[in-house]
Amino acid sequence: MSLTVALSISIGVVSGLWMIIAHYLGLTGLTFFIVPAWAAFVGMPLYFASGGGEKGLSKTLAANAGGALMSIVMLLIADFFGFLGGPFDIALGVGLGSLIIVCYSKFDLLSYVPGGFGGCASAFGFGAGKNFPMVAAVVIALFSGAILGYIADVWGNAMAKKSGEEIG
């Protein structure tokens, strides 16, 4: 089978299993847990976009965490410039935070800039604000997605290789 078909199967299965696991753990919002199951579907494609493999996984995890934490820093910067009012305080917070995400990409482990912005956007999208436990919940979901992506990648490549498909 082709690598595309194999990855389609593995990604489909792990995505479906994630939703079952998330439901029973209460991650879908049906019970008291607050981990946003949807953020795993941000972490998974970011893993694949990173180039995959163990190196891609480590970069995705680090960048997602860094970006999610940066969302708090952006809001603290905005608070500092709150005297400016209007859109200027948040514009400075987001602008300077974005600058920091790109600057810290000089460090190899944090060099996956889209992963940083994906983590930051997910924290904002969840409405985490400066609430560290909520940001941590987003990071857990992002990590879950990246790890599921890694599992699907390994499994998909194994299926394709077993069927004789030439891999990369």
Please identify the structural class as seen in this structure: mainly alpha
Note the quaternary state here: single chain
Using only CA atoms, what is the Rg? 18 Å
**Uncertain stretches:** none
Helical content stands at over 70%
The run of helices and strands is HHHHHH
Count of helical stretches:
6
Relative strand content:
under 5%
The rounded distance between the terminal residues' Cα atoms is: 14 Å
- Strand elements, count: 0
Largest sheet: none
Structural features, described:
The structure is a single chain. With 168 residues, the protein is mostly helical. The chain has one domain. It is 72% helix and 0% strand. The chain has six helices and no strands. Helix 1 (3-25) runs antiparallel to helix 6, helix 2 (40-49) packs across helix 3 and helix 2 (40-49) packs antiparallel against helix 5. It is elongated. 39% of the residues are buried. The mean pLDDT is 90.
Give a brief outline of the structure:
The chain has 168 residues and is an all-alpha fold.
